[in-house]
Amino acid sequence: MPDTAERITDDGNTEDVPVDELSEGDLVLVRPGASVPADGVVEKGDSDVEESMITGESKPVSKEPGDEVIGGTINGDGSLRVRVGATGEETTLAGIMRLVEEAQQSKSKTQVLADRAAGWLFYVALGTAVVTALAWTVAVSFDATVIERVVTVLVIACPHALGLAIPLVVAINTSLAARNGMLVRDRIAMEDARNLDAIIFDKTGTLTEGEHGVVDMATGDGVDEDDALALAAAVESDSEHMIARAIREAADERGLSASDASDFEAIKGKGVRASVGGNEVYVGGPNLLTQLDSEIPDNFQQFADEAGEDAQTVVYLIRDGELIAAFAMADVIREESFRVVDALKDLGIEVAMLTGDSQDVAEAVADELGIDTVFAEVLPEDKDKKVQELQDQGKLVGMVGDGVNDAPALTRADIGIAIGSGTDVAVQSADVILVQNNPMDVVRLVKLSKASYRKMQENIVWAAGYNVFALPLAAGILAPVGILLSPAVGALLMSLSTVIVAINAQLLRRVDLSIPDLSGVSSSDIAQAAD
């Protein structure tokens, strides 16, 4: 966060003020390259803002009037005037800091066990010291040797290692999670993630992009796919319909340039019409073909039937009365989703999908991803009942959703995982928030949970085992064979146990959170190490 901000006064001038003096409603100037001083809304100016500190996405995000900006993010080459909407503890960054702090301070089940063991060690050490004092007094009478034995017992029994065994792992675990886009709100959830039997994913916006895209196309004889797509994009250039956007994006992905269109006309409920290169071109659905009295050739009919079986929408391209191409539209599945399902199955976790879409659409997506359990046509208020169905089978269930309409299910699940940038509802209903909007972080969550629990167990075994071995030596059980530990050696052993526990905890930073690649699916997601 910057220390100062340029506040715009009523007369249009600017004044430098400390950031903590900003109030909601203030108008601030954010110069190129400067940090945004507080959460707010752009009132004037256009620029790209680097938001990787919040979202993990390195690509700058375009901002224009009406867009929200987050305090601490870095402005690009443009100048922005931002109306402050939140300051201090109300900002997004402060909320993330609170979540991380709460996660580090909250105690897991293993932490409670370690604290209990440290308490038991106090009584064990005290009892051992008393027994040692009595035994040595009887053996050699009360002298400096007795005091030396008792001091050695008490020094060795100091519960430093047990006290540090879990907090060190927790701190590193939380750092690793945060750097990989996981904000842990509940430590118990992080620890329990290793035992998940089933994970339910919301479909739209989680496993899919939440936007329609061109997933397949067919063309007539002698018609090139790129030419047909470019022509459709030209006709749709002035339309803001989601299908129009999908066609334009598909053309952009192929690097196609659309010709200029004129005489654009939107035909309500049927499609659009425009003139392109002297040709009259239509783009629309089956209703448009009915209006134009156009017959569907056999190859296009077969294409439409197959698309219908996969619950896809078909849009047709007609040029001068001739049907020359058809596009299959569907909610595009994220590339990462294929890898997520495969990786979770490798971990022995059942994957289920939950959606309000029709059964046909749900099954088409599930079949493509290899998901066996599907809950379709589910209303938001009934989603938690589907979670309970799996719980009633004795399974520990995780729910992954967007944190808004999935809030009841997130709350009902044993572990609620909100995917997205962390809305208020997500923060309140989820145990873990995946800031980067990346479903692959669910796999990383499970892997990190398993690795962290293993380190906790190793540290407790070492810290407790050390005392089981060292206390009898300190008491002098091997004195008959001439082996006695001095208080100095006891202090050294005690310190050594603490160092070993600390080093073992640090090894958690080396845990492999990467996800295996699948053939044909690209991967740009690299796990981040802890600081």
UniProtKB/TrEMBL annotation:
Residues 1-10 have a biased composition (Basic and acidic residues). GO terms for molecular function: ATP binding; ATP hydrolysis activity; copper ion binding; P-type divalent copper transporter activity. Its main location: membrane. Residues 1-65 are annotated as: Disordered. GO terms for biological process: copper ion homeostasis. GO terms for cellular component: endomembrane system; membrane. Keywords: ATP-binding, Membrane, Metal-binding, Nucleotide-binding, Translocase, Transmembrane, Transmembrane helix. It is a multi-pass membrane protein. The keyword ATP-binding applies. It comes from the Archaea. Residues 2-101 form the P-type ATPase A domain. It is found in: Endomembrane system. The chain crosses the membrane at residues 117-138, 150-172, 460-483, 489-508. Gene3D superfamilies: Calcium-transporting ATPase, cytoplasmic domain N, Calcium-transporting ATPase, cytoplasmic transduction domain A, HAD superfamily/HAD-like. Residues 12-24 have a biased composition (Acidic residues). It holds the Pfam family Hydrolase. Belongs to the cation transport ATPase (P-type) (TC 3.A.3) family. Type IB subfamily. PANTHER family: ATP7, ISOFORM B, P-TYPE CU(+) TRANSPORTER. This is Copper-translocating P-type ATPase.
